[in-house]
Write a structure and sequence with these properties.
The protein is mainly β and about 375 residues long. The chain has 3 helices and 19 strands.
Length: about 375
């Protein structure tokens, strides 16, 4: 893993933006001289983070972690982003600029930190792309009746979790997020509504996690989400050649997620993945898993969440070792203010192989237990 580009100035700029989003109270309307109906109150002033139809969001994510295995390398095994143990670390600092298409728009996520390094690790893209999570333009004319065409880099449609920590139940990401699915794609995405409950998507992209193509083929993505009043069921499939320099040996990932808003306070989801990668020569690799998570809000400031999952990397294609892994995570959340929250998390991973590092012995332990404290700042205009 590469080091983190954290600067005190960058962190301060992100957090200080909170000062500009304090609530503003409009002046009282002047008293009327007659008993006629009072004039409508003046609309509240627009947020300073919403200008010319463009919204500006700011996010900062940092954590400190303790690994009970005390690995000499200082690295947590089988983690997506919270990979550093026994030290404070910056996950990301990010600015989001979004202009809704009317009919033309754009979306830009640009930032720094360990998370940005990880989502671009292992590809051959120009170094400047590591500072971008998403960068695409959108076209959505009224005559298209809700159909939207996006072109550029965008996050994957697969998975129950996302890169931004504040939008997930837990602080750490699941094994399925870290190993079963891609992070992002670059290409074209067509999104279209069918009736009032279904939204579909067709994508033609360069592949998994790379901006520039690694071969002459394309990866094709198909996604559909059916939304009832409290339940959303999403199915996604990506298929295409993913081996450098050749179109032989296609990779396929199927992802299905059911998300349920049981009550105003209780939500849960179930996520299933199955992946298959055909080798350029004979043979193929498969991986599969299932994860379930639930979150219960306690008042406006507190919440508790848990996650349990099972992941089978049958051929060692995604983790580097043929193994079956289970994990349990328990997370407590406290909202310090409208823009700042902290999450305390306890997590244990179990493998059927001696995969985890313990003390100065790599691949010597079958379990890994960590305790993490995360701090997340998110500043955005009120909707």
């Amino acid at each position: 893993m590469r080091g983190v580009y954290c600067t005190t100035l960058g962190t301060a700029l992100l957090l200080s933006a909170a000062a500009v989003v304090q609530a503003q109270t409009p002046d009282n309307p002047p008293a009327t001289q007659t008993p006629a109906a009072a004039p409508a109150p003046a609309p509240p002033p627009d947020s300073p983070l919403r200008q010319w139809g463009t919204e500006f969001d700011f996010m900062f994510d940092g954590y400190v972690d303790a690994n009970l295995n005390d690995p000499a390398s200082g690295v947590n095994g089988l983690r997506a982003f919270d990979v550093r143990s026994d030290t404070a670390h910056v996950g990301m600092g990010m600015v989001t600029i979004d202009h809704a298409p009317a009919p033309v728009g754009f979306h830009l996520d640009v930032g720094f930190g360990q998370d940005f390094d990880i989502i671009h690790a292992g590809n051959r893209d120009p170094n400047a792309w590591k500072y971008f999570m998403q960068a695409y333009v959108s076209l959505k004319p009224k005559s298209w009746h809700g159909v939207e065409l996006d072109a550029g880099e965008f996050v994957t449609s697969a998975g129950a979790e996302v890169i931004q920590t504040n939008q997930n139940f837990n602080y750490s990401r699941s094994l399925l997020f870290a190993y079963a699915i891609p992070y992002s794609h670059t290409g074209l995405r067509l999104q279209f509504p069918v009736g009032s409950h279904f939204t579909g998507s067709v994508q033609v992209v360069n592949g998994w996690n790379n901006v520039e193509p690694i071969n002459s083929g394309k990866t094709y993505g198909f996604s559909g989400a059916y939304a009832w009043k409290k339940v959303t069921w999403t199915n996604t499939d990506y298929v295409g050649p993913e081996h450098p320099g050749t179109t032989k040996g296609w990779r396929n990932i199927y992802d299905s997620t059911v998300a349920v808003n049981q009550t105003d306070n209780f939500t849960w989801y179930l996520n299933v993945d199955y992946g298959h990668d055909k080798s350029v020569g004979p043979g193929a690799s498969t991986w599969a898993g299932v994860a379930g998570a639930a979150r219960y809000a306690i008042g406006k400031n507190y919440a508790i969440a848990s996650r349990l999952e099972f992941y089978d990397d049958h051929n060692g294609f995604t983790t580097g070792t043929a193994q079956t892994v289970k994990e349990f995570t328990l997370t407590g959340e406290y909202k310090i203010s409208g823009w700042l929250m902290t999450r305390a998390e306890f997590r244990t991973d179990w493998s059927d192989q001696p995969f985890f590092e313990k003390n100065n012995q790599p691949s010597s332990a079958k379990t890994q237990t960590t305790a993490t404290l995360g701090l997340i700042a998110y500043i955005a205009p009120k909707k």
